[in-house]
Design a protein that fits this description.
This protein is 39% helix and 22% strand. The protein has 94 residues and is α/β, with parallel strands linked by helices. α1 (16-31) links the parallel β1 (4-10) and β2 (35-41). The chain is globular.
Length: 94
């Protein structure tokens, strides 16, 4: 399976996206998925999504995109975390 590219997005592209990125990267590694991830603030999403397979965001993305977007807030709270991680996995293995 080819390496997948994931863009993690939050308001600043630094704080919550880092926490979520580390959690998802660890999960993917445990599942044997090879991902490369990038981080972005929400304002820079349109110029940073070229070649991206999935966007995981902790904030609302006000753009219409052709890339799947998953809300990642529950990866911060832990509530419903397993369901979100499974959705991420399913999208990345399609």
């Amino acid at each position: 399976m080819a390496k997948k590219h994931v863009l993690f997005v939050c308001a600043t592209g630094i704080a919550t996206s880092t926490v979520v990125a580390e959690k998802v990267a660890q999960y993917c590694k445990e599942k044997g998925l090879d991902i490369e991830y990038h981080q972005s603030n929400v304002a820079s999403v349109p110029k940073n999504c070229n070649g991206i397979n999935l966007i995981i965001s902790t904030t609302n993305i006000p753009y219409k995109l052709d890339i799947p977007v998953i809300r990642g807030l529950n990866l911060l709270t832990g509530i419903g975390e397993e369901d979100t991680l499974k959705k991420i996995y399913d999208i990345l293995v399609e």
